Amino acid sequence: GIPQTYQAFVTCVSQFLSDFRAKLLELEKVIMKQEELMSLAMLSSKLQPWFDKVQTVHSVYVSGVASVSSEDARQSSSNCFKAAHLLDILYQALFELDLISLVDKTGRKNVILEMLIKSSQP
């Protein structure tokens, strides 16, 4: 079966993507009204923090979930190993983001912290 830690992680990723979609819809409504000027550079600037967050979440997914299936089949088939590996990757990402938190204003640390807390609850 699928580890509960994975299920909790998927729920967090799903919520994150819903929030991202809401931001995109909000920007789309502003653009459709055509009441204010919105250049591609302005749009890119508004979305850059989200791009950084998406990249971070994707990196955690690749390292914490997708890479497990390509490792030693016996060891990686254990749900305990899978859960521990994902939590370790989330912790490492949080630690790295905490080191740069004074200069990083994108909120990536908050996203990963929330994912770590919620994924470790099951």
Shape label: elongated
Question: Strand fraction band?
Answer: under 5%
What count of structural domains?
A: 1
Structural class: mainly alpha
What does this structure look like?
This protein is mostly helical and 122 residues long. The protein has one domain. 76% of the residues lie in helices and 0% in strands. It contains 5 helices and no strands. It has helices at 4-33, 40-64, 73-76, 79-99, 108-120. The radius of gyration is 17 Å and the shape is elongated. The model has no long low-confidence stretch (mean pLDDT 89).
Key features of this structure:
mainly alpha, 5 helices, 122 residues
Helices and strands in order, then pairings?
Elements: H1 4-33, H2 40-64, H3 73-76, H4 79-99, H5 108-120
Helix pairs in contact: 1-2, 1-5, 2-4, 4-5
Provide a short characterization of the protein structure.
The chain is an all-alpha fold and 122 residues long. Helix content is 76%, strand content 0%. It has helices at residues 4-33, 40-64, 73-76, 79-99, 108-120.
